[in-house]
Design goal:
By secondary structure, the chain is mainly α. It has eight helices and no strands. Helix 5 packs antiparallel against helix 6 (about 90-100). The longest helix is centred in the last third of the chain and has 23 residues, at about 105-125. The chain starts with 8 loop residues before the first helix and ends with a helix.
């Protein structure tokens, strides 16, 4: 993302809070992002919290670079850390150990992951058509993932 397209810090913080409460539906229902998903057509039994949880996990999955990327690249590391910590419920220390990075690097990578998940959700909420593999948003997100992978070092 360019500076002119920067996400509001408050939105990133809302996403971070939602990620931290991914399995706490009561907390998710109270998250201010939930109202964005309550109005979307869906199964009548799905609350906004359930929809938000699904959107967060879907956004995390969009960060998965696939099998054709080196296992030690920054993109794989960021995806693995954010997936292990939020979806897999590992502590940051456990996820860092599993990925083989320092705790300091894990915190930096998690922050990058939170920003990328936020970008995916932001674009989804602010575009009328769904994000597709060929869309400009995906191209921007993939470029950011490649940039992070090329410039992120293990300390």
């Amino acid at each position: 993302m360019t500076n002119s397209e920067a996400l509001p810090e408050s939105f990133i913080e809302q996403v971070k809070e939602a990620l931290e409460k991914l399995y706490d539906f009561q907390a998710l229902q109270q998250n201010s992002l939930t109202w964005n998903f309550d109005s979307q057509p869906s199964d009548a039994h799905m609350t906004g919290a359930h929809q938000l949880r699904g959107q967060l996990i879907e956004a995390i999955e969009t960060l998965n670079p696939g099998q054709n990327v080196a296992a030690n690249s920054g993109t794989v590391r960021i995806y693995n850390l954010i997936y292990m910590h939020y979806v897999g419920r590992l502590t940051i220390q456990q996820a860092a150990w599993e990925v083989g990075v320092s705790l300091r690097q894990a915190y930096r990578d998690l922050r990058h992951g939170q920003e990328l998940v936020s970008a995916v959700l932001w674009h989804k909420l602010h575009t009328e058509k769904p994000v597709t593999a060929n869309s400009q948003q995906d191209i921007s997100i993939n470029a950011e993932l490649r940039r992070l992978g090329d410039n992120t070092t293990i300390i």
